[in-house]
């Protein structure tokens, strides 16, 4: 018989630490263990309710979040505990389960309620929830009648008062800049409640700038604390805002110089 979940009065964060167990890695040369992030000795501690990971594409941000989601009992393609909305027999490749098998976690206490948001699978998740609600009560929550961003905000607005661990993989993919501001307000609600742990990967300087979050830069050297002003994302956006036309012209000239995209 499975243990029934009981809320705790302890504040977030609940997931305190994860580390890689070298003895549980089947092949260090195979993905995802071949990523520089997961070199022997990998360890990540959580000391704030909101942790934000930034870095370039391919560094391993999504893979890391998939592994944490699997540790929490969520589907590593998106969803919550007990939800299996994504067809894993298709083209969608996830590696969180393989990574989670080699991770060791410290919890106080272990919280397995919450949600794992992935922009590319949210439509599938929303369709699953609409269908499940119809089967249960005959009345759908109707997330699909909204735009991607509106459906996303409505979905988490209804859940942000619940205790849990919430994992967001590039939520800005579903949100316009003004909707990103609304998402920041939603994060503030979650933080002030004190019962939500948030782990997020993003490319958005707006979201990176959330006050008092722990901001970590993921590079080939691993994870290290960073200020939003020191990220390449912020510097790029700052230069664009200073003179949009000159910035774009400069980048286009740089790309045309050798026939390849400019390095940013």
From TrEMBL:
It is a peripheral membrane protein. One of its GO terms (cellular component) is plasma membrane. Its main location: membrane. GO terms for biological process: double-strand break repair; iron ion transport. It comes from the Bacteria. Residues 47-222 form the AAA+ ATPase domain. Keywords: Cell membrane, Ion transport, Iron, Iron transport, Membrane, Transport. PANTHER family: IRON(3+)-HYDROXAMATE IMPORT ATP-BINDING PROTEIN FHUC. GO terms for molecular function: ATP binding; ATP hydrolysis activity. It is found in: Cell membrane. It comes from Solidesulfovibrio fructosivorans JJ]. This is AAA ATPase.
């Amino acid at each position: 018989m499975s243990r029934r979940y009981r809320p705790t009065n302890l504040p977030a964060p609940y997931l305190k630490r994860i580390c890689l167990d070298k003895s549980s890695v089947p092949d260090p040369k195979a993905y995802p263990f071949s990523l520089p992030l997961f070199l022997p000795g990998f360890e990540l501690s959580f000391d704030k309710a909101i942790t934000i990971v930034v870095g370039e594409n391919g560094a391993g941000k999504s893979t890391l979040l998939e592994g944490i989601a699997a540790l929490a009992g969520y589907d590593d393609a998106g969803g919550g505990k007990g939800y299996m909305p994504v067809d894993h027999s298709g083209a969608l490749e996830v590696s969180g389960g393989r990574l989670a098998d080699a991770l060791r976690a410290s919890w106080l206490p272990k919280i397995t309620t919450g949600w794992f948001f992935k922009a590319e699978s949210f439509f599938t998740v929303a369709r699953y929830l609409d269908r499940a609600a119809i089967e249960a009560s005959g009345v759908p929550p109707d997330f699909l009648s909204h735009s991607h961003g509106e459906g996303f905000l409505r979905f988490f607005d209804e859940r942000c008062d619940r205790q849990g661990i919430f994992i967001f993989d590039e939520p800005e993919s579903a949100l316009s800049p003004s909707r990103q501001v609304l998402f920041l307000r939603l994060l503030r609600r979650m933080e002030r409640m004190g019962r939500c742990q948030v782990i997020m990967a993003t490319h958005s300087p707006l979201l990176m700038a959330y006050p008092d979050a722990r901001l970590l830069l993921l590079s080939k050297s691993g994870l290290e604390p960073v200020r939003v002003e020191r990220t390449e994302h912020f510097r790029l956006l700052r230069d664009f805002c200073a003179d949009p036309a000159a910035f774009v012209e400069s980048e286009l000239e740089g790309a045309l110089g050798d026939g390849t995209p400019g390095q940013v």
